[in-house]
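User: Predict structure, ligand sodium ion.
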Amino acid sequence: PGGGRVFSGIQPTGVPHLGNYLGALENWVALQSRYPSVLYSIVDLHSITQPQDPKRLRSNILDMAASLLACGIDPEKAILFQQSQVSEHAELSWILGCLTSMPRLRHLPQWKMKSKQKNEGSVGLYTYPVLQAADILLYKSTHVPVGEDQVQHLELAQDLARIFNNRYGDLFPEPQALLSSTRKVKSLRDPSAKMSKSDPQAMATITITDSPEDIALKIRRAVTDFTSEVTYDPETRPGVSNLVTVHAAMATISVEEAVSQARGLDTGAYKNLVAESVIQRLTPIREEIERLRAEPGHLEALLARGTRRARELAAPVLKEVRQKVGF
Ligand code: ADP
Ligand code: NA
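Assistant: Predicted complex:
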């Protein structure tokens, strides 16, 4: 692709886990060199759709910034910024919300999943996808890396670009999905579920700052099955197959190559190999996060600079929006 602008966001959940890294962040790093203009936002406005402790939120924002940088986001190639510091996001979200019907939102995954868990949901949770659309359109973004679970949300952003353009005159390009690999990392304790930060079992999730000892222990405890040979068959052997997925991704080899490296090893011995590949890959990242955490002033300055650059792009677009709406 010659032109184009990429936008993506991640909630400030603190330090990412292995699923976030392999399912999203690795791809973010690749995209920053492939597109001339790239924005990555720590979407703190989205995060308060669930209750947050303010002190914790503040430190989670810095931890996410440190993690993104340590994973390879380069502030010279991508604008890394904090969503709430660019107030245009909230303003455009209101305007787009006025173009969105209530039923359009009811069936979107964010609301269907999370409002049920809580038995009631806030207006913010309900309109979360509208804010996502605003995030994207505010920069006239053309490409949005998304997982399959986010496709419907991107469709809303596409609809809203069209609805706005029809009502007020052409302004927004229709953003295209960049479907990231379908590589899903599973819970180490229950391989029928995906690895998730909300998993209550500590042993189920590897975070990118885990110590080598913790990584080895968690992989040793990973649920497998009663066959000792290592094969890749996610349907019938989800546990072992998840280890193969992780090994292949961390050692940047194919699944077939990972399975062939496991030949002659039982699953117990293979776990050592998998753990070694994870430790090798995560150790420099963990060390870089520790280094960045020790200099919060530097981190804050970096984010502030990204935020200034994002605002410079957002302000003229919002000015056009206001003019078209009649403000
Ligand atoms: P979580 O499921 O832990 O709450 P998020 O929903 O915040 O994670 O996801 C952030 C990003 O990481 C999304 O792009 C999502 O698709 C990706 N992601 C999350 N969990 C996994 C996983 N287990 N495997 C692959 N990608 C994942
Ligand atoms: Na989630």
